[in-house]
Amino acid sequence: MLYARYFLLLGIILLTFGCQSSHEINDKPIYLNASNPIDTRVDDLLSRMTLEEKVAQMCQYVGLDHMKQAEQNLSKEEMESSDAHGFYPNLHSSDVVKLVEQGKIGSFLHVVDVKEANYLQSLAQKSRLKIPLLIGIDAIHGTALVHGATVYPTPIGMASTWDTELVKKMSVETALEMRATGAAWTFTPNIDVARDARWGRVGETFGEDPFLVSEMGVAMIEGLQNTNYPDSFNVIACAKHLIAGSESINGLNGAPTDLSERTIREIHLPSYQAAVDAGVFSVMTAHNELNGVACHADKWMMTEVLRNEMGFDGFIVSDWMDIERLATRHFVAEDQTEACFQTIDAGMDMHMHGPDFLEPVMELVRAGRLSEERINESVRRLLEAKFKLGLFENAFVDLEKTKAMVFNEQHRQTALEAAQKSIILLKNENDLLPLKKGKHKKIFVTGPNANNETILGDWTWEQPQDNFVTILEGLKNANSGSEIDFMDVGSDLRNMSQKDVDAALGRAKKADLAIVVVGENSFRWDWKNKTCGENSGRSSIELFGLQQQLVEQVVKSGTPTIVVLVNGRPLGVEWIAENVPAVIEAWEPGCFGGDALAQILYGEVNPSAKLPITIPRSVGHQLSIYNHKPTHHFHKYVDAESTPLYPFGHGLSYSTYEYKNLVLSKETIAKNEAQSISIDVSNTSNRDGEEIVQLYLNDKHCRFTRPVKELKAFQRISLKAGETKTLEFSITPDMLQYLDHNFNPRIDAGEFVAMVGCSSADKDLLKASFFVK
C-alpha cells in the first residue's frame, strides 16, 4: 500500500512536470517570438513589466570600465565638472552589476570594448524578463572611441566633400564596426548649424548652411540606420542637439542661446525636419537654454514642435547629466525629483546617465504627478528600438567577426577616399602646387601638427600607431626623391618653445621648400591641453600659442612655403592668406589624412573639396555667414575689411572650370509650378577633375527680409580635360517659400534671382531672374 501511494505520487509529479514543460514550449512569451510583429511584441512585453522595470528602461549608465578609469585618474571635483568622465558617488561598479542583473538598467554608454559589451548583455540575460541592453557610443566619424577602429574625417570634413553618397557609405561602414564591437546606437549626426567659429564643436557639424547640413545629416542617418527597412535597423542614429547651442550668446558650449523664433525656424529647425522625414529614431536635447527655457525642460520644442508639428515618433534622450542641471545649473527645479518631472512632462524618454532617475520617477508616478501611461509612452519607444535592432535575438557579438570587420580593407579605402575629397585647397599662388617629384632637393617640414594624431580629431581615442598616417609619414610615403628635414616643435600648443620658433628660420633657409603644419588640438585623451572640440570654446580664432610666429619665421627665410591647417574650426589666418603662396585646409582628415594630403600636394589627387562654412578674418567678424540679410554689410568696419577671408563654397582645383550659358526654362511661373535651370560647365585645363556646382536663390522683394542668397541644390560632377557638361537643376515651389508672420510657408509673387557657380561669392556666380505670378 505504501509503495502504491509512492508510485501514484511520483506519477502525479511526473505528469505535472510534463504538462508544465509542454505548456512552456507551447506558450513561449509573445515578445520573445521574432515572427510576431514588433507592435505585438512591444504590447506583450509592456504588459508583463512592473513600474520599476519600465522606468529602468529609461535609465542609462556609463560602462563599468569607464567608471573604474575615471575613479583611478580623476579627482572627485574633476569628475563632477567633467562632460566626458562618469562616476557615481557611493555606487561601486559591483553595485551596477547587480542593478543590471535585477533589470534596473536599460542602456549603457561609453562601452568601448566588445568583451565588456558581451559581459553586460550576459548580466541582462539574468534579469526576470531578459530585456537586452541598448549600448550607445559617440561614433561621430567612425566608432573612433574604440581602439583599432576606422577613423574617417570629422563631419566638417565630410561636409567639405559635398558628396552625400560617400557620407552614406562611411556611415554604413561605421554601423558595421559598431555592431561588431557591441554598440547599436550612436549619438550622431550633429545637425547643429554652426554659426560661430568660437564654438569648439564646429568640427562635429556639417557647417553653416541649413540645406547642406540637412543633406549631410540625412545621408548619415540613412547609412547608419538602413532607413529603407524601418523595422530592421543597422544601428540607431541620434539627431542632436535640440537646439541652437551652436549659436550661444558667447560662443561657449552650454551657454544661453537667445534667438528669435524666426531664426530658430528658418536656420536651426530645417535640419531636424529633414532628419525626422528620413526616419531618425532618436533625438538628443541640448545643454543650453533657449530664450530663457532650459532645453531639457522645453515642452514647446520637444512635444509641440518635434513630435506634433514635425511628426517625430522615436525617442528623446537627455545629454550628459543635463536633467540634473535643471536643478544645479539652470535653477529651474529645486531638486532632482522636480527636474525629473519637468523633463519627462516636457517629452523626455531616457536619462543620460546615472542613478538619480529611477527612484524619483517612481515617486512621481506614485504621487500622481506623472501617469504610468506617460511612462509607457517612453518605454514603448525604447522597446521598439531594441526589437528593430534585433537585440532580443542577437545581443552578443562573435569576436571573430569583430576582427574581420574592424579596420578592414574596404573601410580603409573609404577612409582614404574621404580624406582625399575633404581636403580644401584655399590658395595656390603662381601654381606652386602640385609639386613635382624630384624638383626640391630638401623639404623643410615643421609645425605642431606635422607628426601626431591631431588628424584624427575629437571623439577619438588613442589608436594603434600602425592604424594612422601622420602628415610627416604621408610625405615620406610619397617617395618624392626629396630629403625631408623635420623639425619637431612638439604637439603642445600651449607650451611651444620660442627657441624652436627662432631656429626654424635657419632650418628653412637651407631648404628648397617649406611645409608648416599648424592648427588646433582636439586630443580627447589629453583633455587639459585641448584647444578645440567639445567644451573647448575660444575667445579668439587666431592660431594658438606661437604658431603664427613659427609661420612668419619660415616665410621670412624666403623659401617657398606651404601652410597646412589641421583644425576643427575656422581659423582667422589673414596674415597667412596674404603672405603664403599656398594654403590648405585639411580639417581633421582621419586615419589616412597624411597619405591623402601628400597625394594632393604631389598631384596624384586633384583637390575638389569646398568650404561648408565661411572662414572669417577674425573673431570680430562674427556673425560671418554667406546667407546674411541685405543690411549685414550696410556699413563697414573702420579697422578691417568687412568681407570674409574665404567664402562659403570656396575651394580650388588643379583644373580650371568655365561656367556659361545659364538658361531658365521659363521666365514666368505660377506659385505651384516647378521649372528647370541649366548651365554649361567646362574643364578648360589639360587635367581631369571634379567640380561642385552650386545653385543659390534670392527672393528679390519679400514682406520679411530674406537672405541675399540661399543654397538650394548642388551637384558634384567629374569632368575630363577639355570636357563640357550641361547640368540641369529643378527649381521647385518649396525652394521659393518663406515663413509668414504665423510661420506658415508662403510664396509671394515677384522676382527671384537664380545664381549658379563654384562658390557663394558674387564674382563666382552667373545670375538669371524669373518671376512668379
Topology of this structure?
Elements: H1 2-26, H2 38-48, H3 51-56, E1 59-62, H4 64-73, H5 76-81, H6 93-101, E2 107-109, H7 114-124, E3 134-137, H8 155-161, H9 164-180, E4 185-186, H10 210-225, E5 238-242, H11 261-268, H12 270-277, E6 282-285, E7 289-290, E8 293-294, H13 299-309, E9 315-317, H14 325-328, H15 336-346, E10 351-352, H16 358-366, H17 372-388, H18 399-405, H19 409-422, E11 424-428, E12 442-446, H20 471-477, E13 483-487, H21 498-509, E14 513-519, H22 547-556, E15 561-566, H23 574-579, E16 582-585, H24 593-601, E17 657-664, E18 668-669, E19 675-683, E20 689-699, E21 710-719, E22 724-731, E23 738-739, E24 745-746, E25 750-757, E26 765-772
Parallel strand pairs: 1-2, 1-10, 2-3, 3-4, 5-6, 6-9, 12-13, 12-14, 14-15, 15-16, 18-26
Antiparallel strand pairs: 7-8, 11-16, 17-19, 19-22, 20-21, 20-25, 23-24, 25-26
Helix pairs in contact: 2-17, 8-19, 9-10, 9-19, 10-12, 15-16, 19-24, 20-24, 21-22
Describe this structure in words.
The chain has 773 residues and is of the alpha/beta class. The protein folds into three domains: 33-404, Glycoside hydrolase, family 3, N-terminal domain (TIM Barrel, Alpha-Beta Barrel); 423-621, 3-Layer(aba) Sandwich (Rossmann fold), CATH 3.40.50; 657-772, Immunoglobulin-like, CATH 2.60.40. 32% of the residues lie in helices and 17% in strands. The strands form seven sheets. A six-stranded mixed β-sheet has the order 11-16-15-14-12-13, with helices on both faces. Strand 25 (750-757) and strand 26 (765-772) form a beta hairpin. Helix 10 runs parallel beside helix 12 (270-277) and helix 20 (471-477) crosses helix 24 (593-601). The longest helix is centred in the first third of the chain and has 25 residues, at 2-26. The radius of gyration is 28 Å and the shape is globular. Mean pLDDT is 94; it is low at 1-26.
